[in-house]
Amino acid sequence: MKRAIWIGLSLALAAIIFLSFARPHEMVSPGNLIPAHSALQNDCFACHTPFQGASAERCTTCHAVADIGLRTTKGAKIAQDRQSTPFHQALTEANCMACHSDHPRPRLTQASPVRFDHALLKADARTKCQSCHVPPRDDLHRGPALVCATCHQSSGWKPATFDHSRYFALDRDHNTACTTCHTGGNYKTYTCYGCHEHQQAQVLAEHREEGITNVENCARCHTSAHGEPKGEHGGEGGRDSEGRDD
Fold this sequence. Notes:
The protein is mainly α. The protein has helices at residues 2-22, 24-27, 56-62, 139-142, 178-181, 200-208; strands spanning 48-49, 53-54. Strand 1 and strand 2 form a beta hairpin.
């Protein structure tokens, strides 16, 4: 009796193993492929290596990295827009499975789609956000000629932080609305003459006594409301209009 049971179990196991190789799409497939790869529905080994799973080498057999986003696998040119921006050429390695899965995700993880890890990009590509992303069109983002990383992290657009003290400390009487200094919605430039005590003629007259004739770029010497001015006439190093140190 025991021998018959063992023989039956062995035959069942052998059948499962045989069918896993002979008809893997029916035995172990997690679901239908995406429409673009529907022709490979019954050809698991087009992408998978037995006992190893899918591999980038199988993907690049059809999808040449140099052509992704530029040409289809048939060689036809792809019209360029934000949805098909070619960036795979800037990846540090061809690790297709880090982002792609041609089968539907298990139900338990469908609410957590795979997020693109910007660490996969080469260092110089990580600073060229506009090559893939459309910049915001509000007044705050329209003005500054700053890199996105000044306020944002590649791990997520929000939360964003901006350290205004790198340019000017907003303390004491300077804790005011942005439009007081940045007029016309242009955050690339600023003026200190938005307050009544800062009249340009008076400021110019006072600075001429110190031999200073350029009073357009106040933050070059004055970086806060505290103490003596800093910068080229204060001896402690200032910043120019773009926030760079002298």
